[in-house]
Request: fold
Amino acid sequence: MVSTNAPGERTHSRLDALTRRWWLYPLLLLLWCIPLHTSKGYDRTESMEVIAQVLMDPLIYAVPALMPVAKLVPVLLIVGVMVVGNRMRRLFNGYVALLYVALAFFQTTAVTERYGFVVISGNLAVVLVVGAVWAWEAIVGRNDFAARERPPWKWWVAPLALVALLAPVGSGSLSPDFSPGVLLANESGLTYCMMTPVILAVLTLFYPTVNLAVLRVSSFVGIIFGVVNLVTWFLVMPEGWWMGVLHIPLLAISIYAFVLGHTRVEARAEETGI
Reply:
């Protein structure tokens, strides 16, 4: 059962109302625009180069042994959620919250030779917001993962999420790589853009009995990163088109989840029969 304590209900009502306000989303965009921080300084015209250096070797990749673990753990948690439902809810919510906080601080930072210690401050801020709402969900337990029947069309997110999780591209490469070693042990489990469609796919499969405030915030930030990456890899750096392809799940599932999160209450009630 979903928690029904009065303080939790009041907080949930406030956050649910807040995430329905149109002005919240421009504010999240403004957070994303916070300038980069570098310990050695940089010219504004070098911003793309600075960001590229961080994303190629962020601090979160410092322990390669974690990469296969970071793929295996979410798979086990998702299987657990699908099989035993709410008995796995606390672990699933807690892992997602911890993952986003780790991504916020360690996928957005790097130590580079040219620019010193670098922080992509805007990325850190918006991903940390996502981590914060998931930490709240880990406490209040609004997601209801009870077993239910789903129309077959809802499963369209599954193959896209699988592509994102496997992320068939070699480390430091922009080309497709479907070798088993890459599929099982690359860094996708420690990247925001690959794990977000996986996480959102789970929420959409249990919609509408999920924390809608979390769904809205998570999906909107996913849309931001999805648009930026598709523009980058298809228009600005078309030689990296395969990376653009791998970001399609992020944008597609994020848009779908955002629309679901703002579907009228009457429609959700009709779907659940309440």
Residues 6-272 form one domain.
